[in-house]
Structure formats: C-alpha cells, structure tokens
Amino acid sequence: MTLVADTQLAGLLARTALGDRRAFGDLYRATSAKLFAVSLRIVRERPLAEEVLQDSFVNIWNHASDYAQAKSAPMTWMGAIVRNRSLDVLRRTREEPDIDDRLAANLADEAASPMREAEARAEAHSLDECLKELDAEQRQTIALAFFHGLSHSELAEHLRRPLGTVKTHVRRGLLKLKDCLMRVAAPAAGR
Amino acid sequence: MRRFSTDAAHALAAEYVLGTLRGQARRRFEELAREDRDLAATVRRWEDALTPLAERVAPVAPPERVWRAIESRLGSREARAESPWRALGLISAGFATVLLAAFLWFSPAARDADPVFVAVLTAPDATPRMVVSMHAPDVLRVRTVKSWRGIEGKGLELWVLPKAGAPRSLGMVRNEGDTQLRIAMADVRMLDANALAVSLEPPGGSPTGAPTGPVLCSGAIAPVKKA
C-alpha cells in the first residue's frame, strides 16, 4: 500500500477546513485504514475502534482549520487525534489488559524494523536510529505502551517486572530518545 | 504561567504522547497544555517524534458503516440525532438561499453587468451570509448579507476551492457592505474554480497561505446561463 504524499493530504485537509465534503471523503479513504488499525491495537475491540474512528473524523472535520497552525505532518496530526481518542475510550472501559503475547513478542522488532512507506522521511529515519540506541527492555516497554496503550501497571503486569522498574524504563528510554533526536535533528535545524 | 521546569515539561509531555500518563493526571495535563503555549509546543514536538511510529501498523479497512455514521454527523456540528424537523429546516434554508440569490441578482444595483457566475456563501447553520458574483471583464463583487459581530481586530479572507488541490486566496473582504476585487475569470487562481469560502484570519490575511481560522461561510459556484 502506498501512502498518499504529505502535500496531497495537507491539501485535502485545507479543503476540508473550508467545508469541502468531497475532499474530506478523499481524506478518509486515504487514511482511515491506517488510523483504524492504530486505534484497534489500543482499544482492541472493533466496535470501540469504530467509535473512535467516527469521533476522530468528526473532530478532524470540525478542527481541520487548526491543522495549518500545527505544522506537523498530516498523518502525525490525525494520528495524534486518533491515539488520544483511543486512550480516552480506554480509561472508560478497560478493566483487564488482554495482550496477545505473540504480538507483544514482536513489538520490539516492530519498533526496530525499517520503515516501509515512510522510509524516505528524514525524521522517521532518525527515530529509527534513536530507537536502536535504547536497550532492548526500554525499547520493548515503550513499544508496548505506544502500540497497545498499556499503562505503567499494565506494563508491569505484562512484563512481570516491578512497577518502579517499568516506570524507570519508560522515563529513561524517553529521555534517551529525546537526547538522541535533538542530536540527530540538530544539523537539519539550520536549513 | 510556568508550572514545570523544561525537563519536567518534557517528561510529562512525553508520557502523555506515549500514553502512559493516565486518568486524572492525563486530564489535568490536557487542561494545562490548553492554556500554556510552551507546554502545548512541547507536546507537539513529542507527537512529531513518536506518532510517525503509528504509521508502520498494518492497515485494517474499517467497515463502510463508519463512514456513513461520520457523514451523518457532519451537517450539524454538534447535534448527533437527525430529526425530520432539522431536515425541513435545511430545505427551507436552501429555498431561502435561492430566493435571496434571485433577489440580489435582479436588484438594480447588481445589474450593471450580468454576472458570469454567482455563489451564495452560507454559514454552517445554513444561513446565507455573503453573495459573490463575477462580472466581466474583471470584477468580483462580494456582498455581505449578514455581517459578523465580535470579530474586531480580525480579517475575512476569501478563498477559491479548485476541483483539486489546495485553496487559493482571492484577498481580504469587508465585513460590512460590498467589496470589489479586481480578478478576471482568466486569473490562474480561478482555474477549475468549484466553490468559495471565507475564513477568519489575522487582519493582514493568513500568515501561512492556507486558511488558519474557522470557516465562516462557503458555497458552490453556480454559472449563470444566458437566456
């Protein structure tokens, strides 16, 4: 599957901001399968993920004019909306985490694997480079939290680690990531 | 209002974006980020850093009913329920728009040159707010039917939506009375013009070249057929 170019998605978002329903429909067709998958991983139930996708796109329709100020890539902006909505729904509904272990085992690889669609993107590349700098446990903890929306205590339970250890992995991992990203991004900042 | 050190702001923003900041703490952080621009910018930097990871998840096509549900919620920006009364309201508003257009068309002031096209721009609640007409050779007339209140210090920017591609600015228009813009039908910005819209912007217009403020009204371009 080829991802629609950022400039094209940004154009669709700008037209959506002006109330163009056809552009909004094109935007939905270009992005909904990715965004649905993102939500499905986190909320894990299809009806819930459908609800999230629905709410998120109504949100995107209503706030498309904010996009121009966000200065992020279109998929990043929309992805953040979907992820936030998914996490909102989670705190309402989830009692017991239910992790597919096979999936969880793949997660560290998933976070470390080379990107396919977005390969060309410089920031994605530097993110990959920086993820490699984390130690395996930090990377796995962060990937589990990111892709599956696990909380600290769910991470601890799933990884059979003390809560404090998990919190430290998350905190140190993110800090390392930040330092690395700033270092890698620095030469490009002068453009 | 600075509540956190830079390090603390980064740590919280990172866990917020990662999703490990939960419950009450998450909600409180959201509220703070809404008021604190620096904090919001830190959140955005973390979103830019982490969210692209989500793109490597294998796509799953959502069922068709999701799109239908979304579409049914677009007309009314807050109300979810479709009621027959609402539909009736929309129809009569549509009818009013046609009447208004007809009235403005044939009113003596607008008759000095036959328009090439006319567009009635309506607000999201379907109230007609502006009528735009193109007159040969190069006059685009924008007439405010109902002006906006409480937008002092802001500007109204007129956009043309081509059949494909990003909106193009036609210039700033006045909130009261008429604005005449010197634009020819052959102007490159009018190429494949499909619809027009007005957004609320800083006084000098959008700083980015794309609409940044809310869209106040929009409407399709209707060519005028010669009798």
What would you say this structure looks like, in words?
- The complex is a heterodimer of chains A (191) and B (227).
- Chain A is mostly helical and 191 residues long.
- Chain A folds into two domains: 6-93, RNA polymerase sigma factor, region 2, helix turn helix motif (Rna Polymerase Sigma Factor, Chain: A, Orthogonal Bundle); 101-189, Winged helix-like DNA-binding domain superfamily/Winged helix DNA-binding domain (Arc Repressor Mutant, subunit A, Orthogonal Bundle).
- Helix content of chain A is 80%, strand content 0%.
- Chain A contains nine helices and no strands.
- In chain A, α5 packs across α7 (136-148) and α6 (122-133) packs across α9.
- The longest helix of chain A is centred in the last third of the chain and has 27 residues, at 163-189.
- Chain B has 227 residues and is of the alpha+beta class.
- Chain B folds into two domains: 6-56, no CATH class; 98-223, Immunoglobulin-like (Sandwich).
- Chain B contains five helices and nine strands, in the order αααααβββββββββ.
- Chain B has helices at 6-18, 23-35, 37-50, 64-72, 84-106; strands at 115-122, 128-135, 139-144, 155-162, 168-173, 178-182, 193-201, 215-220, 222-223.
- In chain B, the strands form two sheets. Chain B has a five-stranded antiparallel β-sheet with strand order 6-3-2-1-9, covered by helices on one side.
- In chain B, a hairpin with a 5-residue loop joins β4 and β5 (168-173).
- In chain B, α1 (6-18) crosses α3 and α2 (23-35) packs across α3.
- Residues 76-91 of chain B have low confidence and may be disordered.
- Chains A and B meet through α1, α2, α3, α4 and α6 of A and α1, α3, α4 and β7 of B.
